[in-house]
Request: fold
Amino acid sequence: MRSARKQPIADDGLRGMTPHFTAIWLLDTLPKALGLFRPTVQNSDGDEVVFHEVWFPLAAKATSDEVADRLDAIASLHRENDTFWNWLADPTPPHPQRRNADAENVMAYNVTIQDGRTVLGNVEIKESTLVVSVNSAARAERATAMLRAALGELVTAPLAQIQSIDQMLAQHQDRPRPASDIPLEVQTKLVHQSLDRQYCTLLDQPVPMLGDVTPRAAARTAAGREKLAVWLKHLENRSRQQPKPADPIATYDFAWLWR
Reply:
């Protein structure tokens, strides 16, 4: 596929991208604060996070209403408004995520809706183009195949734009609000929620400090529990090594992990 030219982003578009900027800021900030060296960021499928936008130009005689009707017929697409759909994962239990042996250097990046289902991507009609946004190459391939099969003659050959996390940070470093401008209570909520998700994922991944077994498995034996206590103390101490006592990372409560 050819690479699409970068389009100017309107103010409304930037406002809509705010949650993504916040998430990317957290993915960049948390590993540095926790002492993790260049973590691998994976989505819920275990794929490396690389942001893809796939642009489907509408065919000359196609209308937005025709495209919308076809999209509504796709069971995995959930319509949010006249022009926007969430692509949702099957609600049935997924296959176990592929695990990285160096689990401490893996961060999970996942977006869900209120009922807990994973958002695999977004589909939006923008004037004479259908735009698909996903966070991995594998999802981009799946979405492209799904939409070409459903839309057929209503769209022409797709174009793609790809950005790594590092590229997105470099391109948009001046656009998000600086962390210092975010109220402390908002920073704390965002960081604590992100840490909750990260450590919840880590409970079922092998950890080198535990002999490459999962924390849940380590808790089942006396020797494993000894290693687990050392590991948890390590996490707590590392979290508290912040210059400011009120830092969101320093105030994170590990009590639920101990339980």
Residues 11-172 form one domain. The beta strands are 40-42, 51-57, 77-79, 84-88, 106-108, 119-126, 129-134, 159-163. The two ends are 50 Å apart (CA to CA). Residues 1-18, 99-104 have pLDDT under 50 and may be disordered.
